[in-house]
Amino acid sequence: MPSSFTHAFVGGAIGKMYSEQISTRRIILVSIFLSVMPDFDVVGDWLGAAPESMFAHRGITHSLLFAAIVSAIVPRLVARRVEWFSPLWWRLYSCFIISISSHAILDMFNYGNLGVALFAPFDDTRYFFPIRLIVDAPRVEYFIQWRTLYALVWEVSIVWVPLALYTWRKEIMSWMTGVFVRTDFAS
Ligand SMILES: [Zn+2]
Question: For residue 12, how far is its CA from the centre of ligand 1 (angstroms)?
Answer without folding.
Answer: 16
